[in-house]
Each structure stands twice: as structure tokens, then as C-alpha cells.
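Form 7-S
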Amino acid sequence: MTDMKFNLIINPSHQWKQSTAHALKLLQAMLKQGHEVVSVFFYGDAVQIAQHQDIQKTWSKFGCAADFLLCRTMLEEFGIEPQLTDNFKVVGMSQLALNMELADRTLELN
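Output:
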């Protein structure tokens, strides 16, 4: 099987911590299988990770080249002032669209 490039979109309908934990396990499995993850886009309730540097650091431990992206519009909607570690960035939807062009597949997790 050829290694593939993926994007992950985390868009939970509820329980954002559980959704991000599940997505982290998926990221680990993908990397272990030799796949590349271009970006992880935190959308909807998942942008609450911006207030939890401890959870961000857990994501950053894996040393993959993925960009960890938080949706600017959702941060504004929730009134969240981000407190980000080095690997996390606030971006618009256009960055997600660009990353989707770079990947073979995009998976949305809710």
C-alpha cells in the first residue's frame, strides 16, 4: 500500500475533549502506518483546545510535520482568546482549502 497524505478536521457535535482524544489516537495510528498528516484543523467546539496548553503539548509530542490549525471564525464566535503553544496556529478556512489540495484524503471526525 502506498503511503498517503491526510488532513484531519475535528468538528465535534459535543464532548470536544473526547473527540480530540480520539483524533489523536487516529493520528498516532496513521503515523505508525507510515502515512503523512498534512494538517489537523480544529473546528467548532474543538477550538476550545486553544485554552488548554496541556492538551496542545500532548499533540505536539508526536513530532510529525502536521500543522495544527484553529479556525479563526470559531474562536471569535466562542469568544476565546487563544493561548497557543508553538505548533498551533490560528487560520481561516482558506488555509484548510489549500491543505486539502496537498492531501490525498481529508477525514472529518465529529
